[in-house]
Amino acid sequence: MSDLPQDAGGVAAWSTPTASEAVALRRVARAAARSRRELIETATQAARSVLGAVSARCVRLDGDDPVVVFREADTAGRRLPDGDLPIDALRRSATPRVVATEAGLSVALPVMVGDRLWGALVAEIAGGRGRTEEIGAEGVAVAEVLSAALAARPRRELGDPPPDSDTVANAEEFRMRMGQEVERARRYVRDLSLVLLELNHLKSVNALRGADVGDRLLAGFSRQLARTARAGEVVGRLGGSEFGWLIPEAGIEGAQRAADRLVHRVDTLAGSQPGAVSAGVAELSGAADANDLYDQARLALTCSRLASEGSCTPYSAELAAAVAGQGVRGTIERSRTLAGLRAMARAVDAKDPFTQRHSERVASLAGRIAQRLGWTAGETRLLHQAALVHDVGKIGVPDSVLFKPGRLDEVEYELVKAHSELGAEIVSGTLTARQVAWVRGHHERWDGRGYPDGQLGEEIPEGARILALADAWDAMTSERSYRPPRTGAAAVRECHEQAGLQFWPAAVEALGALWAERRLVPPSEIGHGA
Asked: At 500, phi and psi to the nearest 5?
């Protein structure tokens, strides 16, 4: 058995994702907001689908021995033999590998977390020996999306626990104990309440102050929650920044008082800020089973976050009716998915030190331009959401192209141009149709020479016109590896020169007014990480 092709030692080809591949990428992007297991399962299934493989596996490679995290069986339900995996070759070069097997081909796609080879997506393909050059490239984008999504998750979920993380139960242990406590409470007709708590600002703490500060905040909250719970109560971390607290022998009022005390106490933790924790409470007497109890507490927690961060909300039938339960559940799912998309967009920005927080700056400026143009607060919020993920499609562009210091050739430029279409595909189903159009059109030009659709003037959606200007301003005034940044004054002059050509004149006038009012600070003046 040998690596193919021999001259390259891996897969050199790259192609813009097809429509079916874009659908698979969108599924993985949505799973990024859910549990780590769901993310890995979805990515593995997507790799099998786009490669036309009979089975696929996700394998961890960051330890001494490979560990199969998840295996996707073929359609007949058979488990194929593991076969040989080019582990050493992957560890040497971290590039896609294609290996000949007795049944056909084995494709191994590296999954990177930062600069570290975390694992690989491995697919078994029947036959296919005649197309080794391109076969791996078809799944590279899936591995890239999984890499970015894993990089955006807390390090504890990737096998790097923070100090004192064992002070509370893990999600599996908590679920098991919750089932036991529900059964016991039912049998002896006793009260049981569930409190769900969420650290509201963990992602911003990680982004602005570093993952180490976020780790300490999580560890500190874990310790405080464990110390607060009394004997017989169960506390656990359910994933991300969500925790659970089971309180036997307590009705909803007693559980709410306990949760309120904890919520107010957490503001004193190092690294936290006001409104650090929100909570939702439900009691078993109004729930059908353990799953229903969790759903009720989750709905109450969501209402806490929507109403006022740092509050505690008890569940009630009246509350569920007032917020139209199914609508709120849809809102929960949408907010989780959008959070996953934002994490992926941040991961794209963070690949290059010169583009860190680019999407956040573009979102801020786009919002200010929209307000200047008379947009309502609701419309401005929609534009801000779209701007935060406007570059998520760059997950499908090879790093060698995305961060090339010199001029792009024609093929490379076409790959870059495809990111706006792929981004629209990824966010469709999560954002509104208007927002999707803004993401798709943020590289259109007023004179009709933009992409991907070559729209002219008023044909371009207004939100896309604003995004185009905000995106260009941030690029012009930011330092790049291949050029110094323009000054704010020079960038404003260039925008005015391009009004009616590249940019919408009304948006340029709004930008100029913001500059004249000293409400614009170029990124180069506040540092790369600003």
From this structure: 85, -10
